[in-house]
Amino acid sequence: MRTELERAGEELRAAFGSFLEQWSRTPQREGGIGFLQLGWRRLVVSEVLDMELTLSGAEAAFGRLLEAQTLGSAARARAASVPTLAELRAELLAERRGILVLLPARDRSHLFVLDLEPRGGTTELVVTHHPLPSRDQLVKLAGSIGSALLDTDSVVDQGALAALSKELLPAPVRSRLGRWREAYVVGFDLLHNLPFGVLLDEQGRAFGQRLALCSAPSLPHALESARRVPAPRSAGLDLVLVAAPVPPPERDQLLAFAFGSREQALLSKAFGRTYALVGPDGTRTRVLAQRARLADARLVHIFAHGIDEPQREYRAALVLTAEPGGEHLLRAEDVRQLKLQGLVILSACKTGFGPARVGDDQLVNLGGAFLDAGAQSVVLSRFPVTSAATLALMARVHAQLAAGASSAEALRAARAEGS
């Protein structure tokens, strides 16, 4: 005989299905719509997760979260199906590589961990759930850290960072992370755009130095990226380097930075076949004229100033070299004209800036524009960076890439080497 809880569960599942069906008919808009922008929607999803955790366990609850993620703008545009655990295991998980998915909610937040555990000579996919403090509590802890990251002259309070790390990553999760080398992370940027890599382990070491990290707006998005197969390259370029060290006169709030033959050599020496647009050649017109080279390059690296245009939907832009009567800003609409297939590195401030789209997989920033243009992955910064430190870091990243490392592993190794 069904219990009252089971009957309530069936009613809640039916209501959740209607909720998702109604959302799936919501008209699309450029730049996406934050599926979980409103607190009541996050509460609905959270209550469904709690119900499934009580009645059916962590796998069933995680399945409900995947259903919600598949209604993101990008997933809807592709008519993506809800990922199965078998697909996640086959295409994202591996030995010593796991998945972390965070859903901040009103009363409590949810952290799901997917891992492969050895069982009798084989491995078994294990999904675990870990209740966390409410979204408001986590945002309060993350606030001062995010504010410090926005100012290159500020120092992050290590005590606050350690406290937030402890709240976000309970002891059982840290134990699993201790066995990993790589991780996919979803949802942590919902806390003041906080990069997962700044969180600390028990020894006070940043996870960005310990783990090769791949951040994704959703798991359907991560699966789509993993399935991209690069087309054969004709030119076979290893690197296309664009550098614009001298901003136009009308951008007088931006300072010129050093980037000459020494800096170009530092970033190019690890590769055999390179093409550079540096200084006077680093104009928007010259960059857009090199579509064929950009399409064939294994790596496209742009070293420039980044600015925020808050009045625009895609508000981040790259400041390239001025040209007479020409536009010096490279915006998302320019990027979408390109056809890419390799790795893109944006060494510029605030390239990850964009309007809040909580719960959506449409990345409304320059990184999203480069991914839409076909890039395999994008390395960028959500915060201000300094040119000298970035140059040193990226020289190490290039050396790792040239040696065959993945983009995530190259960034991890470069961070660790420079610590």
Descriptive key words:
5-stranded mixed beta sheet, 17 helices, globular, 17% strand, alpha/beta, 5-stranded parallel beta sheet
The chain-level mean pLDDT equals: 90
Q: What level of helicity do the residues show?
A: 25-40%
* N- and C-termini, Cα separation: 61 Å
Q: How are the strands ordered across the major sheet?
A: 3-2-1-4-5
Using DSSP, what is the number of strands?
13
- How do the helices and strands follow one another from N- to C-terminus? HHHHHEEEHHHEHEHEHEHHEEEEHEHEHH
Largest sheet descriptor? 5 strands, mixed
Radius of gyration: 22 Å
Globally, the shape reads globular
Oligomer: single chain
SS strand fraction:
15-25%
Tally of DSSP helical segments: 17
Low-confidence stretches: none
Helix and strand content put the structural class at: alpha/beta
Characterise the protein shown here.
- The protein is α/β, with parallel strands linked by helices and 419 residues long.
- It is 39% helix and 17% strand.
- The protein is built from 17 helices and 13 strands.
- Strands 3-2-1-4-5 form a 5-stranded mixed sheet, sandwiched between helices. A 5-stranded parallel sheet has the order 7-6-8-12-13, sandwiched between helices. Strands 9-10-11 form a 3-stranded antiparallel sheet.
- Strand 9 and strand 10 form a beta hairpin.
- It starts with a helix and ends with a helix.
- The mean pLDDT is 90.
